[in-house]
Amino acid sequence: MKKFTSLKLFVCAALMAFAGTMQAASTTVTFDFSTADGVTALGLTMPDSGAYMETSSMTITNGAISVNTTDGSTASRIWNTGKGSMPSALRIYSGGTLKLTVSSGAITAVTMTAASKNNFDFTSSPGDFTIDGTTGTWSGSAASITFTPASVQNRIRTIVVTYDTDATPTDSGETGGDDPAEPTVAELPYSEALTSSFGTMTTNNATIWTIASNYSCAKATGYKKGDNSANFEGSAVLYTPWLNVKDYDEVTLAFDNCINAYFNDLENEATLYVYTSETDSTQLTFTYPDAPSSGWSEFVSSSTDVACADAEQIRFGWVYTSSSSSAGTWELRNVSVSAEGYVAPPTFSPEAGTYTDMVEVTISAGEDCTIYYTIDGTEPTTSSATYTEAIVIDETTTVKAIAEDVTGELSEVATAEYIIVDADTVSLDYSEDFANGIGTMTNSNDKVWKQGSYNGTNYMKGSGYLNGANTNVEEALIATPWLDMTNVTSATLSFDHCIGYFGDADPATFLKVTVGNSGELEDDLDVTFPTVEDGKNWSSFETCEIDLTQYCGQVVRIIFDYNSTTETAGTWEIANVKVTGQTETGINEVKFLSNDARAYDLQGRRVAQPTKGFYIINGQKVLVK
Prior knowledge:
54 strands; Immunoglobulin-like
């Protein structure tokens, strides 16, 4: 509903300057990402050895200083290698940023330490960042500073920030546009699916709120799995961005949510708020799923009308709280905020993605809406095909759809790409020991990648040193076959590798491991390279393990990417490649369902006879093989 306001005239009064001078009081805070104690002191939970937590969706604060990161070639993260007295670091990748902001006043000095001089090449705006070995310094007077990697992955152990809340910033990193310290404001209608990332939503605790990509939702839990599984005490908020509502008296918030059976006081442990400022909020009521006696509830849709006549901007926050005695799990997806006259775009089930067999795609829209769609990549109109029944997809296809309500209002176009993998796929667990050359893997350049053996270990060796000279090599690849990870809930890649003849060059500049599907997915994985001791040309073989859980539910392959130049042509040896998968719970086969059994797919639709995949059966998540 539109609201109309009269023009307001604001008259600013001049302020008298303070008489005399006053010595400014400075404060210094430290962000320690190198130890468990340091990470815990920042209100975070140290990742397990060999694991990481992504940081781009969180704001890390200490005093009046906040740290925000953005993703580059790989998602920014706190990575715990499990090695040495300072096992962890904050890693910012090429194309990403690290931003320091003071809530009031000015930052006057910054000192950073890095894990390695080879992983430290930040530049800063505003001002100059001076690096000497593993220490970098900045000085000036700024409300915020953005640090950007020049070319390599930066591994930051500590950040020491000095600031003065009474000072006025004199340096600016602006090159035009809005003040970078101002929050991003989104326009209505707003939506975020939360199926594979937080998108424009953020959290103040990425240990509790995470993306469960294998279930296509955001998830909050205070239960830590592992060797010492236990509930922990914590609190976290998942926020929408600030939303521009100055032209509306009322908006409608809608979302789907699901819970498990481990809440003791659900209505106080999973709550929802609307914020009109950083300090002013109001708790909202919404539709909770029926609490299951065991296992999981179904996803339930909730819609709440929110008055906003007196506000210019609002945002919503889902607040999760856990304790040592109560740590349920709350799942959230399909968040939307709309106003009167808005038609929500259609949604697709199953989600867009990679599949090994044909899929039947259903399209849904709001009540009394007509859906029009295309499958040839063109934009749909009211002259396009009218949706009446599920669409059978048996080859890679892009489906686009719009919804029209009874007044003739049209939605935005919704798009979903379904990739049907033609190649044969391999189920997990997968392994290749290179005893028979490249084996089940493929080799794009057999001049660069060759099979070898040493002391009983078979390996593939990549080298750009050819015919007695260093050569330029771009993307010489060896790749696993397509791996079917649609029926696992967690997965791990492991391989043994050693390096040689890189000299002072960073091997990460030339060597990559990526995960990809037949669509647009191509993510660089976080590889820990072996260390070459001083005075030697070669490292020993070391095992690298990488968590692939975020790619569960997809068909992917792993690619080892070798590159060299005429200046640097090191050698990379790869052995014992393995990809293993695990499931949390499952049954091998469903012979029949009793009359009183209830089975639903993960979109909440009743299924008479489950086939291969995940289902909710009698309130529990089950894998049917």
